[in-house]
Amino acid sequence: KLTFDNVTADVQRVFDWLKARPDVGQIGVVGFCMGGRLAFLTASAVDFKAAGVFYGGGLVPGPGNPYPPPSGLDVASRLKCPVISFWGGQDKHIPREHVRQLEEAADQGPYPLEVHWYEQADHGFCCDDRASYHADACRDAWAKLIAFLKTQLAT
């Protein structure tokens, strides 16, 4: 069963394994959709240096959210690293209000949530196997993510 505790334990084991390797520097996490949700949640529990979230679904409780607690709102003030996030303005699954709530919750902690909106993009805009693929939005988001990671992982 997929639970926060199980996922966090798995991610922590991978983090510890990577951290012990002499050829690995600073470690970040990036996720898309449900993986974006998990990247956000585990950024509150694992000592990553940075996290990237692409259209992380189910971070805010409400109708249509099948995920058990904790929510993103529960952990946002406890983020252990800077988080950059990317959202589609046409995404019917993730309302702008939910992202605003995440921003407000993160503002209560040490790391505000960096948010980027792509007004013409839908959910899954970086998946080139989907009809929602939006090359320009994905290209721009990816460039922002790489710049962010270079800065955050350099320390």
Give an overview in words.
With 155 residues, the chain is of the alpha/beta class. It is 38% helix and 14% strand. The protein contains five helices and four strands; from the N terminus they run H-E-H-E-H-E-H-E-H. Helix 3 (72-75) links the parallel strand 2 (50-54) and strand 3.
What's this entry about, in short?
This protein is an alpha/beta fold and 155 residues long. The protein has five helices and four strands, in the order αβαβαβαβα.
Descriptive terms for the model:
155 residues, 4-stranded parallel sheet, alpha/beta, 38% helix, 4 strands, 5 helices
Q: Helices and strands, in N-to-C order?
A: HEHEHEHEH
Rg, Cα atoms, Å = 15 Å
Q: How many β-strand stretches?
A: 4
Mean model confidence by pLDDT? 96
Number of helices: 5
Task: Tell me the layout of helices and strands.
Layout: H1 4-19, E1 28-32, H2 34-42, E2 50-54, H3 72-75, E3 83-88, H4 96-106, E4 113-118, H5 135-153
Parallel strand pairs: 1-2, 2-3, 3-4
